[in-house]
Amino acid sequence: MLEQHSHGHGRAAEQGALKAALALIVAFMAAEVAAGLLASSLALLSDAAHMLTDAVALAMSLAAARIAARPAQGAMTYGLGRAEILSAQANGLTLLLLAAVIVIDAVSRLASPPTVHGLPVLIVALAGIGVNLLAALILAGVSRPGAGAPSLNVEGSYRHIVTDLYGFIATAAAAVVILATGFSRADSIASLLIAALMLHAAYQLLKASARVFMEAAPADLDPERIGKLLAAQAGVVQVHDLHVWEVTSGFPALSAHVVVRAGDDCHELRRALQALVHERFGVSHTTLQVDHEAAAQPPLQIELRPRE
């Protein structure tokens, strides 16, 4: 019950942070679209497009957090926590697709650059830095009790926001170059930099979400180390069929078959091993099948008699 309460409290905090960040992004996105059209700035319009994906990502993350908060029931014995992982994977795919679109448009504009008005681009970019920095701080301040970090769901939205923050910094630099030199291609070059940041963020999100779906061990847990620690405990003869995976962000799980010395209290040892795993590795969902070592059987005696 305590673990469920902690997860529920963490998801409530995440939902509040996602709502606040979403309100900031939507308000600023509308202003940026107008400024990008007036200034003929691809960098601003690409940032606005990315902010649209930010808004969609935040909305999806919020919906996923609400779904994941539902209790386990029926066939969903683990609950719906992996809705958050689906949301993170969708965020990674949108970053990937949007980066491809921006690269195509930026290359076209490098060949035939339009006139870009540097001053409105600089003003909007500086404002965007402030808005995205605030949104990033809101999301960065959320951590789930027992996990030590935000869920992958929130991480997906956070990566969107941070990529946008870096994009606005690049856009501001491009605007300064345009104002100082009139070099309009700086706008397209900044767009290519933004696309590169999107591709990096997309790769990280898709890789992390794929690890969860493939039921890989969490990055901070080494199954071999866990197995050696369990096998080294007094009374343990053998540990095999050890599995470590992540149900959803901040919810690692472990199962194993443990053979204990004949005559030892297997139930007491099981409780001790579960407490050890929780204390050393933070894994509270542990399933251990504990059996006694088979007693040695005397060799089969075969008596040979002469045929009468």
Describe this structure in words.
The protein is mostly helical and 308 residues long. The protein has 2 domains: 2-213, Cation efflux protein transmembrane domain (Alpha-lytic protease prodomain-like); 223-292, 2-Layer Sandwich (Alpha-Beta Plaits), CATH 3.30.70.1350. Helices cover 65% and strands 10% of the residues. The chain has 8 helices and 3 strands. A hairpin with a 2-residue loop joins strand 1 (236-248) and strand 2.
Fill in the CATH topology of the largest domain. Answer: Alpha-lytic protease prodomain-like
What's the number of domains? 2
Structural class: mainly alpha
CA(first)-CA(last) distance: 76 Å
Radius of gyration: 28 Å
Shape: elongated
User: What is the CATH top level name of the largest domain?
Assistant: Mainly Alpha
Residue stretches low in confidence (pLDDT < 50, at least 5 long) are 1-9, 144-148
Instruction: List the total number of helices.
Output: 8
Mean pLDDT: 81
Q: Strand percentage, roughly? A: 5-15%
Largest sheet report: 3 strands, mixed
CATH superfamily heading of the largest domain: Cation efflux protein transmembrane domain
Q: Any guess at the CATH architecture of the largest domain?
A: Up-down Bundle
Order of helices and strands: HHHHHHHEEHE
Strand order of the largest sheet: 1-2-3
Q: Please bin the fraction of helical residues.
A: 55-70%
Number of E-state strands: 3
